[in-house]
Each structure stands twice: as C-alpha cells, then as structure tokens.
Amino acid sequence: APVPIPDLSSCVIPPSGLPKPLQAIEPAISCCPPISSNIIDFKFPTFEKLKIRPAAQLVNDDYFAKYDKALKLMKALPDDDPRSFKQQANIHCAYCVGGYTYPYLDNPKVELSVHKSWLFVPFHRWYIYFYERILGSLINDPTFAIPFWNWDAPDGMQIPSIFTNPNSSLYDAKRDPKHQPPTLIDLDFNKDEPNPNLSVETNLCTMYKQMIRNSKTWKQFHGCPYRAGDKPDPGAGSLETSPHNHIHLWSGDPRECNREDMGHFYSSGRDPLFYALHGNVDRMWSIWKTFGGKAKDPVDNDWLESSFLFYDENKNLVKVKVKDSVDEKKLGYVYQDVEIPWKNYKP
Ligand code: C2O
Fold first, then answer.
1. Cα 338 vs. chain centroid, distance in angstroms?
2. Is residue 92 part of a domain?
3. What CA–CA distance (Å, rounded) separates 45 from 5?
4. Is 1 inside a domain boundary?
5. What are the cysteine partners in each disulfide bond (predicted)?
C-alpha cells in the first residue's frame, strides 16, 4: 500500500532521530507544525505562463532584491505561522528525523521518513514548491520562481554569491568558512579526507557517473520502494547519495557538532541555500527523464499514491500525492535552459 499522510496530532517531541546530545540539552525541541483539522486535497494551480526557475549564478540585482524581500517577510512571520521560515525549516526536521508517524494496520505509530527511498525526489519537489508559492504570495507576485544552485556546471560550482551577503536574508552564518566563493565545490566531498584530485572535470565525471551510468533504471535513480508499514530507509537512489549528500556536508559548518546547518537533516532547512540545492536536485529529475530508455518514473501505484501534507500560502493544510508531482509543468514551472556539460563526461 502507498505511504499515507503523517498523523500530525502524534508528532514526536523531540523527534526520535535528533542527535542525542541535543535531545539531552533541549528535550522540548520540537519540529511539529501547528495543527489543522481541515485537510484539503491538492488542486493544480492555474497560471498564464510557466515560471522559469533561474540558475542562481545568473540572476540580476532586481531578482536578488525580490528574493531577499520575500524571504525577509517569511522570516518576519510569527513562529507559529505555518508559512514562517522557522516552520518551513521544520518541515525537513519533522519528515526526516523521526518527527512523524502514521497509523497502519495494527501499528498506530509507524515511523515515517522521506530519505533513502523512492520518496526522496518527489517529496522534495513538493517541499520547495510550497516554499516558492508562499514566498510569491508574501510579495504579491505569484510569478516568483526560486533559483537553483547550478552545481552540475562549471559556472555554478561554488556557493552562489546571492547567498553570501551577510546583510541579506539569504545568508546563513553556519556554513564552512573554507568553502566560501570562489572555492570549488567537491561533489564527492568526504569530510574526513581532502580530495587531492578535485577539479571541475572530476565534478563533471561525478555527475556523469551518478546521473547516467548509475541511473539507468528508476530504482537506481529514485531509490528503493518504500511502502506503508515498511521500515524507513530501504535504500537511496544515486542522486541522493551523491552528489546530494556530499553537497549537504560540504556546505555545513565543521565548527558545529553536526555540521549544522546544511550537514544534518534536522537543521538543513534553516539555510536558504537548502532550497537552491534542492532546486537543482529537482531539475536533475526533469533532466534524467529526457534520457529515454529505462529512465522513466515508476508506474507502481504504491509510489504514485503516496502522499504528504504541506501548508500552502493561505495556511491551508494540503494533501498532495506523488503522482501529481511527476510533471513540473503542471505545477507551473520549468528550469532555465542552461548547458548540461557532464552529459559527455564519461570517466
Ligand atoms: Cu531532505 Cu537535501 O535533503
């Protein structure tokens, strides 16, 4: 059976997967959103034209000012407003470190986790989709589209500069000070061992390997099936393992116990960079499907009918299904058409 929506009323405090020392210091730490008993079903948005999510390194000052303003407004909302940045960040904490459970058969509390399985890619599409809608509504611009961090191309292989101005809302102090621009990102980052061969070319090879050689089938790309009642984390897809996980660790701050913010599930949503990293993960899904052959989404009903809950820009609690996420155009956006240089980087 498909994974059902979490039961918000039994949200776990503190979430079970929170690093233990943190639980000890702050047992009341909570990622749980405000509760609403009214759940509405998702309906596709109506729009005149598709929004184009831009590559973060290519946006102009006006765009930066707009995103900065929208995020400032989001950060200024009261903490208990489900649209606030605090609550947006908590979504990741609740869904990813044992905050949520759902009832299934005779077990009233099956743990829910959206990583390391075929839910990874669609869950994060929905997550940033609502984040984008909320930002747009806060600046009364439904055409606002979030930027993607183009880490798969040479021009994007560093932290995009729009995220590094300490006076802007896009900044986060908890990042590795050694990985500030123009430091080249390491898509194969290992926190314990520096990579002596790091170069633009090795990054392009990593992309080729993960997106083409190791992503021939949906199981390789999306990850293993995860159905109602299953134990969490049956197995991650190639993109999630690398470069996605490596980018999280590379971005986080080594001076923090868990490389916060980006280096741990519970805190990564607190860094605005997270939503740009996931913009590109999302873009990779769209690109992968253009490869043809077996690069096709699962047709398994347990995947298509799996569902999640998100608050929208009107504070409505919306139930979404994986099947409604498979075509980003129906959600109203596409990605800026930039080069995909790794396609020919067969190692
Ligand atoms: Cu939910 Cu980048 O992870």
1. 21
2. yes
3. 21
4. no
5. 11-32, 31-93
